[in-house]
Amino acid sequence: MLVIGGTSSRNLAQDLAQELGTKFIQANVVRFPDGECYVRIEEEELDDEVIIVQNTHPDTSLVEMLLLQDAAAGMGARKITTVVPYFGYARQDERFKTGEALSAKVMIRALELNSKHLVTIDVHKPIILDWFRGQTNDVHAAPCVGRFFDGHGIDLVLAPDEGAMQRASEVARVIGADVDHLEKTRLSGEVVRMAPKNVDAKDKHALIVDDIISTGGTIEAAANQLKILGAKSVIAVCTHGLFTKNALDRLRKCCNAVYSTNTIENEVSVISVAPQIARVLRGQI
Ligand code: R5P
């Protein structure tokens, strides 16, 4: 078994190979002048079992993943495990309005062409994995996030809304901190409001945990609410740090620190989810 890394996930793929004690290969990926993608796995031969690690966001990364799968299949790999650290299009999991595409299903079905095992990390709604006709696992980043913050004086872990409580609770359990949630209402793509809620945050070192930070609107509203409630410090952490526009700069003004896992590699992606993916792949979870 070996691990092949795509361009979106070099560090994570390398970490995963190390965790599994297996060989790591960085695929050769280049772009033609017209923008099309060219991939080549530069090995004499491939093992029967390979793990490909590559995001499906943005669209160029999805195409790269499909080509990597085909390159591995073309070299005779028969058991291709597709690890998608950040699964793009997961939020369009319904036809919310007539005439819309069911994007999440389209992406899942595309990944099925050369793979019988799909692994995601904190996918927005795990139910979408039911569209994959093969084995699936959604790996939780929370144990890795909890271990990262263990011993750092966090007293209170917060979810931005009740729906995100399970993730926050998993992190809080590892740290040994209290857990609660705020009451988020999204007013528009970028504007989020936190309803006043009686959370015991006075003089606490608070950690806000979310799956995605995109515009930063959710975390900004949560951090401001926690300050009103008297929190001594506020740190934000997410699994997938998209940080669109100037989200990181915006968040640095209202949070003491911002971190993400390495499902999307960026300047704050210091928490590796490789140990948890390895546990799932070894069948330990
Ligand atoms: C929403 O359901 C997600 O869990 C995140 O809270 C959301 O995607 C964050 O987006 P933003 O950073 O733009 O507020």
Radius of gyration: 20 Å
- Any guess at the CATH architecture of the largest domain? 3-Layer(aba) Sandwich
**Bound molecule types:** ribose-5-phosphate
Mean pLDDT: 96
**What is the CATH fold-level name of the largest domain?**
Rossmann fold
What is the CA-CA span between the terminal residues?
A: 20 Å
Description of the structure:
This protein is an alpha/beta fold and 285 residues long. The protein folds into two domains: 2-140 and 273-281, Rossmann fold (3-Layer(aba) Sandwich); 142-262, 3-Layer(aba) Sandwich (Rossmann fold), CATH 3.40.50.2020. Helix content is 29%, strand content 26%. The protein is built from eight helices and 15 strands. The protein has helices at residues 10-20, 59-74, 103-111, 142-149, 165-175, 217-228, 247-254, 274-281; strands at residues 2-5, 23-26, 28-31, 37-40, 49-53, 79-84, 117-121, 135-139, 156-159, 178-181, 183-186, 192-195, 205-213, 233-241, 257-260. The strands form four sheets. It has a six-stranded parallel β-sheet, sandwiched between helices. A five-stranded parallel β-sheet has the order 10-9-13-14-15, sandwiched between helices. It has a two-stranded antiparallel sheet with strand order 3-4. Helix 1 (10-20) packs across helix 8, helix 4 (142-149) packs across helix 5 (165-175) and helix 6 (217-228) packs parallel to helix 7 (247-254). The radius of gyration is 20 Å and the shape is globular. The two termini are 20 Å apart. The model has no long low-confidence stretch (mean pLDDT 96). The site of ribose-5-phosphate has 12 residues, from strand 13 and helix 6. Ribose-5-phosphate (R5P) is lined by residues 160, 164, 192, 210-218.
